[in-house]
Design goal:
The protein is α/β, with parallel strands linked by helices and 439 residues long. The protein has helices spanning 7-10, 30-38, 80-85, 98-103, 134-140, 186-198, 211-218, 238-242, 267-273, 284-287, 290-293, 330-339, 394-404, 407-421, 423-438; strands at residues 19-22, 46-50, 68-72, 88-90, 111-116, 124-126, 143-148, 156-157, 160-162, 168-171, 204-207, 227-228, 232-233, 258-260, 262-263, 279-281, 299-304, 307-309, 314-315, 318-319, 322-323, 344-348, 360-361, 379-382, 385-388. The protein has a seven-stranded parallel β-sheet with strand order 4-3-2-1-5-7-10, sandwiched between helices. A six-stranded mixed β-sheet has the order 12-11-17-22-24-25. It has a three-stranded parallel β-sheet with strand order 8-16-14, with no helix packed on it. The relative contact order is 0.10.
């Protein structure tokens, strides 16, 4: 018999010293987290782990330091201040590796908090919009507490779980977090056009959410036979599905299926996903496995950066020593795309920050994290063009990156490149490379 209780009763299953895995992104279980936090006086040394969450995150407040320790595998906006003040910690790990940490006992899970769809007539619930790292945790945990939420779409794939597995169920009517984007900037539109020109018919797409991915997608209406295999997606792909541009016909892995780990967007996206057999939400250990990614043809991986240095090192998780986001799945897909036949690993970013500082820099800030190494970087795209780095030496890379940097930064970058790489080698190699490309 299913154990339906109140949220306050359900979280009594959490004991001091437990490690609690929380479903994340748009599926963050708000009611359960609030009830858990309300028990702070009764709990000590509970470790809360998750990728980025949305909404409530007060358990990471310093006033609860004796009760809860938070460890993020990716830092969302709601956790950033807590990580930067030291009351929460960041755990750097490739997204594809997180489920393995649970499965191999490196990070054993005691309790999982879920936000799931109501059971179907057979008693099966769905993890809905956020399957990602949860499957490994569910396979190994001792206790499962679930919000039963009619607003959660039912999705096919690895996130199907029978209600009998839940140690406690709480009926809620929490809205699923929606992420509504504004219009892309002129810079994002330009970047989108450059990237769209790099995408061939029959390509398999990996892209996140934001102005640049949406700008790319808006430029693909005349393409054919595109597929989607991505750690996350948003509603920018919906018009392409409706037009038949995205049909997955050329994919080798789960042909004609949209394969993802989690999704974020508006209710329109969630309604599209609900009971849609072409959407497969899979364990992120599968989705982000480079051995799986590379099997698809012409994989286009589009990721972002905080800054890129003149050798092609990509910092995507920190501003100097200040942690900002995380490693995530960038390296999983940058490498997977590079290994895919005809694939392209792309890093896209505006040339300058909102404060007018160049994002292409002579050297990364002190303490900055290298998420994608210079050896993995292939294409850097700004609103000023495409810098192709693969096959180029350091001097040639510097020249290519300067060409796509903001004009206000180019003189400084030229001086830095001259001092670092020398003028004769610098000029000679770029000249020869240009001739080769012209021929």
């Amino acid at each position: 018999m299913t154990n339906y209780v109140t949220a306050d009763e359900a979280v009594k299953l959490i004991k001091s010293g437990d490690r609690v895995l929380v479903q994340a992104a748009s599926a963050t279980p708000q009611t359960l987290l609030k009830a858990m936090t309300a028990r702070a006086a009764e709990l000590r040394d509970v470790e809360v782990v998750h990728i980025h969450t949305e909404g409530f995150a007060e358990y990471a407040d310093p006033k609860y330091a004796e009760s809860f320790r938070t460890s993020c595998f990716f830092i969302g906006a709601n956790m950033r201040k807590y990580v930067q003040m030291g009351s929460a910690q960041y755990n750097p790990v490739f997204l594809s590796d997180i489920p393995h940490l649970f499965r191999n006992g490196t990070l054993p899970i005691d309790v999982v908090l879920l936000n799931v769809s109501p059971p179907d007539k057979h008693g099966y619930c769905s993890l809905g919009v956020s399957v990602d790292v949860m499957v490994g945790g569910l396979e190994t945990t001792k206790t499962i507490i679930a919000q039963i939420n009619p607003n959660m779409p039912r999705t096919a794939g690895d996130g199907i779980i029978h209600i009998s597995r839940f140690d406690a169920c709480v009926e809620v009517n929490d809205p699923i977090h929606e992420l509504i984007l504004g219009d892309p900037t002129p810079e994002e539109i330009s970047i989108g056009k450059y990237i769209a020109e790099m995408i061939e018919d029959g390509s398999t797409l990996q892209m996140g959410i934001g102005g640049i991915p949406n700008s790319v997608l808006s430029c693909l209406t005349n393409h054919k036979d595109l597929g989607v295999h991505t750690e996350m997606f948003s509603e920018g792909i919906l018009p392409l599905i409706e037009k038949g541009v995205v049909n997955g016909a050329k994919k080798n892995v789960l042909k004609r299926m949209i394969v993802s780990g989690f999704a974020m967007g508006s209710r329109k996206l969630y309604d599209f996903m609900d009971d849609n057999p072409i959407v497969l939400m899979r364990d992120i250990a599968f989705v982000n496995d480079t051995a799986v990614i590379r099997r698809n043809p012409k994989v286009i991986a589009i990721n972002s950066a905080i800054e890129v240095d003149l050798t092609g090192q990509i910092c995507a998780d920190s501003i100097g020593t200040k942690m900002y986001s995380g490693v995530g799945g960038q390296m999983d897909f940058m490498r997977g795309a590079a290994l895919s036949p005809g694939g392209k690993a792309i890093c896209a970013l505006p040339a300058i920050t909102g404060n007018g500082l160049s994002k292409i820099v002579p050297v990364l800030k002190e303490g900055a994290g290298v998420v994608t190494t210079r050896a993995h970087a292939q294409y850097i795209v700004t609103e000023f063009g495409v810098a192709e780095l693969k096959g180029r030496n350091l001097a040639q890379r510097a020249k290519a990156l300067i060409d796509v940097a903001h004009p206000s930064a180019r003189e400084t970058l030229e001086r830095a490149a001259h001092e670092r790489f020398g003028s004769s080698l610098y000029s000679f190699n770029v000249h020869r490379l240009t001739e080769a490309h012209m021929n």
